[in-house]
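As a warm-up, study this chain.
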Amino acid sequence: MGLVEKKMNIGKLKFRGDTYIWFAIICLSLLGLMAVYSATGSLAFRKQDGNTEYYLFKHALFLFGGFFLMYFFHLLDYKYFSRISQFAVIIALPLLLATLIFGNDHNNAKRTITLLGITFQASDFAKFAIIMFIARYLSKKQEEMNSWKGFGAILAWICGICFLIMPENLSTSLVLFFTCYLLLFIGNARLKHLLLLGCSFAIIGLIAFFTLLKAPDSMLPGRAATWKARLENFTGKDSTEEFQTVQSKIAVINGGFFGKGPGKGEQSAYLPEAYSDYIFATIIEEYGLFGAIVSIFLYLLILYRTIRIVLKSPKAFGALLALGLAFSLVLQALIHMAVATSLFPVTGLTLPLISNGGTSLLFTTAAFGILLSVSRTIEEQDLPQNNTEKGDNIVTA
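Now compare it with the structure written out below.
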């Protein structure tokens, strides 16, 4: 028995990490498999000669690879990512610039780039790179953050990354900026610096908003005309609703409380991007309000358990890293849900772990792997046989 118990303990140690986060990830992934299978039916008939299993197997393959990646990352010491972040942010800048110039055009937006035969969104890589880098900077250079020079140095990186993402993916840029702002606040940046940054951002945002609405479409660069159309549609200035918004509303109304049942949704055949940008509408139609509540609960559970990790983390880097990754993914999920239910303008954000995806799914699972690595390390430090010295505790601003 002693040998068996010892092996079981070793097995548990290999799969350590917050149990509730593992549970939420698995549930969301299973929901994603079912939703993708339902939502890609019409797409399969258009592009795969009616092979409805094609996109299911493709999604399942990336999900399997993502879980392998997540498992591998959760076994690593999260402190390695502190060093990796220094190189990651340097790589992210030219990647984003190359995407703007040479990226693949999809729906009038250059968001992906193909390197060595692999197509991926550079913004996914840049998002996690800057979050890791900020966590490192705040934990290593706390004294420098008291000066304008130190604050300006990290702000330059944040603005550089967000500015390069913004032209083709405004929503991702804004989510990333708010995540970085939260990390600066939690990481003890000086309040006057944060207030100045917040006020400046609000003023610039308001000026851009009113300028965008009043400017003629012919004078708007890039995707600005698309942003304007979406804002006018949302605010009611344009009486003609977008087709995808109408179809999403129909799907939500048809869902009721328990929905029509798995695979019985009808609007996915008419709703553009039903398997990605509007997959939450598919979930509501097939699983109803009950399915929507469960989905929201699972994302909030991840955020809640992450906050518990942050409070228990003896190291500032681990706490900031876990919070930044979890907040960015959960915020993205909530915005996606708000768009699908017409509570927010159309953005194009996918639903993490659920929307049909390739490399984006791998980046998401990798982020959760890092989050679980922080959780695992804390659990191991709490074991009686571990007398690990505690480092600098993070102090909230």
